[in-house]
């Protein structure tokens, strides 16, 4: 089978080096971030989903695919489905004793994630950063960082298109003597701070880096500390937002205030 999707490639890397924790976490990060197509046994009604369930070895799994074509190939007929992010599917299934069957029999990334794995992944992506009160006293270049961490941050922050002007990464020392990594987000759009901080912390979590003190701080472009941060730090490019025509979402879960429910 041809490796044609990000999940295919992440799965192949994970399977090729089963003892590599970073590659395993990278696969689950892709699973959470991807748009997935969940096979239903009836059309969506009032934001309620009725997924088709697979029974295997006394366990139940929902059937999800990373493309409409793969879902159609599996079902062999025109079938109802919903397009939802992986993290939302994980959130819906958590503590329901239901696992995820990914691309079953139709792709090299065919994979069964049992209900225990769903609960673990849900716990991982629900984690939120703590609020910081320490005062920085010195900044340094972000040397000796792994390529995995830098790549993870770059990929996560690419999803922040239009949410901030720029981002700087530096090492920092605080007034109480402890040190860590410091991500300065410049001119963040009002209300986006929580999402940006969570995305950055997820990048660190899924990179499997250990013993890292990692802090996200939001600054304006007139902040006096930005001058030294920009001299010592590494600038992470944020893509320019695409100009799209407004559309009315018909996808279940498209409105964060009305997430879909299992039925």
Distance between the termini: 34 Å
Helix content: 25-40%
Mean pLDDT: 85
Helices, by number, come to 8
- Tell me about the largest β-sheet: 6 strands, mixed
Task: Explain what the structure shows.
Helices cover 32% and strands 24% of the residues. The strands form three sheets. Strands 1, 3, 4, 5, 6 and 7 form a six-stranded mixed β-sheet that branches. It is of the alpha+beta class. It has helices spanning 6-16, 21-33, 68-75, 86-93, 115-126, 147-158, 193-206, 226-232; strands at residues 35-39, 48-49, 53-56, 59-65, 81-85, 99-102, 111-113, 136-140, 166-174, 179-186, 214-219, 234-236, 261-262. The chain folds into two domains: 6-126, no CATH class; 136-236, 2-Layer Sandwich (Beta Polymerase, domain 2).
């Amino acid at each position: 089978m041809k490796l044609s999707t990000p999940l295919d490639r992440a799965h192949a890397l994970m399977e090729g080096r089963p003892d590599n924790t970073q590659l395993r976490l990278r696969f689950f990060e892709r699973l959470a971030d991807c748009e997935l197509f969940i096979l239903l046994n009836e059309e969506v009604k009032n934001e309620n989903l009725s997924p088709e369930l697979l029974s295997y070895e006394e366990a139940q799994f929902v059937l999800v695919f990373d493309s409409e074509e793969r879902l159609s190939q599996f079902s062999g007929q025109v079938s109802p489905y919903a397009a939802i992010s992986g993290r939302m599917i994980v959130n819906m299934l958590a503590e329901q004793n239901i696992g995820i069957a990914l691309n079953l029999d139709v792709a090299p990334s065919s994979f069964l994630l049992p209900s225990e794995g769903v609960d673990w992944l849900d716990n991982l992506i629900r984690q939120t950063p703590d609020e910081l009160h320490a005062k920085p006293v010195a900044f340094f270049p972000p040397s000796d960082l792994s390529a995995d961490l830098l790549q993870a941050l770059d990929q996560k922050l690419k999803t922040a298109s239009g949410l901030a002007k720029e981002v700087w990464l530096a090492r920092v020392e605080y007034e109480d003597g402890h040190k860590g990594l410091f991500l300065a987000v410049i001119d963040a759009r009002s209300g986006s701070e929580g999402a940006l901080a969570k995305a950055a912390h997820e990048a660190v979590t899924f990179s499997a880096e250990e013993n890292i003190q990692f802090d996200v701080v939001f600054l304006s472009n007139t902040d006096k500390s930005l001058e030294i941060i920009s001299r010592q730090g590494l600038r992470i490019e944020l893509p320019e937002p695409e100009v799209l025509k407004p559309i009315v979402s018909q996808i279940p879960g498209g409105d964060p205030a009305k997430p879909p429910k299992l039925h």
